[in-house]
Structures are given as structure tokens and as C-alpha cells.
Specification:
Layout (H helix, E strand, L loop, with lengths): L3 H4 L2 H4 L43 H11 L6 E5 L1 H12 L6 E4 L6 H8 L3 E4 L10 H7 L4 E7 L11 H10 L3 E5 L21 E6 L11 E5 L2 H10 L7 H10 L3 H22 L5 E4 L6 E6 L2 H10 L5 E2 L9 E5 L3 H11 L4
Parallel strand pairs: 2-3, 2-4, 4-5, 5-6
Antiparallel strand pairs: 1-7, 6-7, 8-9, 9-11, 10-11
Family: Belongs to the class-II pyridoxal-phosphate-dependent aminotransferase family. Histidinol-phosphate aminotransferase subfamily.
GO biological process, one term: L-histidine biosynthetic process
GO molecular function, one term: pyridoxal phosphate binding
């Protein structure tokens, strides 16, 4: 049976978080002489001399409206990568505990495991890029704390079978982290609505993809109030800067524009797939629920090098497990996709 307290590291249970100047008062004020800031302002058009809201309340309230989840169930970080790292630091004892990852998948799970000295047990996806539930069950032991599932998956682009994910959630006593960075492009609905059903569920999302804010580094985690409290306890006091908070708020008022971009991206994805199928060096194009496609080719490195010479950058994934011979291509604008196809027509 899942019990959060049994997962937490002892030092985190006993941790007294840093108390920032902005944590120590409630209500409104007009004179701030508490945080040793520069009272005269900033040498910029916008003043950033004051520390930002440590819990990003206004951004969370806006997200709460859009996502249909209470603000107390939202963690905001410096990209989803910060949320991933905090989960390791909160729940995994270095050199003792382990996590399960399911390659081919997003590389930061392995990197964070290495940084935190936590074993990452690999259970390869099946040939259809779905979970090997039997393999995962065999890999779990008493020290397995986290399972990471990316859906839609990067770099394969497909969504993971929902029933399989629910099987993990119902039977694993640790945390199951569903990384939904590309969920806006997917036919599958988000797992956010299942938070009340599974107390061991953490859902990661981002404003970097469909929302077009990769440069601001705004990542989100959705989980039970107890898990969010742990993450807020461990994070740096001011982990999201004021500029990112202000700009994120502005962007979140433009849902209709983002939805228009998503629709156009999906239309362009379908066109690009049809055009790429015409080339004899393309062996397969895997089904995608994301804003990219995985393309199996006769010679991935040669095609990649050819495109680089013509100023077009894609990702060579041919050395990734189960992605031999594959290139990952992001869906661009209509003009960018046209340039890609016209350039590939010159490839011999």
C-alpha cells in the first residue's frame, strides 16, 4: 500500500526549509525594508529589484483555471528538469535507492539519476514502443522509489497505453511520474484528472512546447497536496524569476492562439509525413502524438550530416536503443517544412 512517509528520505522528513523574507509576513505592504534589495529600482525599463513570489501564486491561480486543478496541487519550477531533480533529492537515498526508466525515453531521467548517485534500472520498451509490464515488475524491489513514463514519448512520439500506466499506478508503492511535455498535441487525455484517484501520481507538463515559452523555463508538476508540499520544501526559495512569472501570466491569457498553433502543427505533421514517405531512403515513419516524428532511414548519419551542411538541424537518434537508423524531426512552420523537403530532394 502506498504511504508517502515511507518513501521520503529521513533528512527530508526532518528538513527545515529556508524561510525567505517574503515568507515571513502576510497581507499588503508599501515599504519593503526586509530583504536587502536595491530600493532604487533596476537599470531596465521594468523594475526587477524585488524578489519574486516564492510560490508563484498568481501563475498557479491562472493555471488552476486552465487545467481544472487546485493551485495547491501545482508545483512550478525552472523547467520540468527542476521538478525531476527535486523528486530524486526528496525520495531517493544516494547509493541505496533505485528508479526505473523505460528507454528509449527522455534523457534527463538518467542524467538526474547519475547526478544524485541513484541507480536507474532500464526496462526497454517493446518493439511497439509500449511498456513491458512484466519486465518492470521484475525490476522493482524494496528500494525502487520512482518510475518515469514519458507519454507522448520522446523520442518515439507515441502515447503510452493508458491501461498499462494505470496498472503501474494501482500496483506500485512508489511514485509514478508521467511526463506529459507533449500532451497538448496528443489524442490521449492528460492524467491530471486522475490525481484524486492515485495518491502516488505525479504529472509533469511544461510551457516550453505548445505554449512556445522554452526560453522562460517554466515547468509544472501536478500531484497530491502532500507531494507538492515536499517539493516546495526542497526547492530553492526563489526558483522562478519575476520576468518568467510575469511573461507566463501574459501568455496564459492567449489560449486561443496556442490552440490555433497546435491545430496548424498537427496539419503540418500530416503533410510532412506524406512528403517524407516519397523518399526511398525513408524506411518507416512511426505514429506520433507529438510535435515531432521519428523517421527510420537507410543511413541516419549521412542524412543528418547532409542537412547540417545545408543549415537544417534535426536530431540523429540512431545510437539510441530501439531507434537504430532513426532521425527525429520537429514539425516546423510551413516554410521550414517545405525547405526541408526541397533540400532532401537533393540528397543522393
Amino acid at each position: 500500500m502506498f504511504e508517502l512517509n515511507n518513501l521520503l528520505r529521513e533528512n527530508i522528513k526532518n528538513l527545515t526549509p529556508y524561510s525567505s523574507a517574503r515568507d515571513e509576513y502576510t497581507g499588503e505592504a508599501s515599504v519593503f525594508l526586509d530583504a536587502n534589495e536595491n530600493a532604487f529600482g533596476s537599470p531596465l525599463e521594468t523594475a526587477y529589484n524585488r524578489y519574486p513570489d516564492p510560490l508563484q501564486y498568481r501563475v498557479k491561480m491562472k493555471l488552476s483555471e486552465i487545467k481544472g486543478v487546485p493551485a495547491r496541487n501545482i508545483f512550478l519550477g525552472n523547467g520540468s528538469d527542476e521538478a525531476i531533480d527535486i523528486l530524486f533529492r526528496s525520495f531517493c537515498n544516494p547509493g541505496v535507492d533505485n528508479v526505473i526508466i523505460v528507454p528509449p525515453t527522455y534523457g534527463m531521467y538518467q542524467v538526474s539519476a547519475n547526478i544524485n548517485d541513484v541507480e536507474a534500472r532500464k526496462v526497454l520498451l517493446t518493439e511497439e514502443y509500449q511498456l513491458d509490464l512484466d519486465g518492470i515488475a521484475e525490476a522493482i524491489d524494496k528500494n525502487t522509489k520512482l518510475i518515469f513514463v514519458c507519454s507522448p514519448n520522446n523520442p518515439t512520439g507515441n502515447s503510452i497505453n493508458r491501461d498499462d500506466i494505470e496498472t503501474l499506478l494501482a500496483n506500485f508503492n512508489g511514485l509514478v511520474i508521467i511526463d506529459e511535455a507533449y500532451i497538448n498535441y496528443s489524442r490521449q487525455k492528460t492524467f491530471i484528472q486522475e490525481l484524486t484517484e492515485y495518491s502516488n501520481l505525479v504529472v509533469l507538463q511544461t510551457l516550453s512546447k505548445a505554449w512556445g515559452l522554452a526560453g522562460l523555463r517554466v515547468g509544472m508538476a501536478f500531484a497530491s497536496e502532500e507531494i507538492i508540499e515536499v517539493m516546495n520544501k526542497v526547492k530553492p526559495p526563489y526558483n522562478m524569476n519575476e520576468a518568467s512569472q510575469q511573461l507566463a501570466l501574459q501568455a496564459l491569457n492567449n489560449v486561443s492562439l496556442v490552440n490555433l498553433w497546435i491545430k496548424e502543427t498537427l496539419e503540418e505533421r500530416d503533410k510532412l509525413v506524406l512528403n517524407l514517405k516519397e523518399f526511398d531512403f525513408v524506411l518507416d515513419i512511426y505514429p506520433s502524438d507529438a510535435n515531432f516524428i521519428l523517421v527510420k532511414t537507410t543511413n541516419a548519419k549521412a542524412i543528418y550530416d547532409f542537412l547540417v551542411k545545408h543549415g537544417i538541424i534535426i536530431r540523429d537518434r540512431s545510437k539510441v536503443e530501439l531507434c537504430e537508423g532513426c532521425l527525429r524531426i520537429t514539425i516546423g512552420t510551413p516554410d521550414e517544412n517545405k525547405t526541408l523537403i526541397e533540400t532532401l530532394q537533393q540528397y543522393k
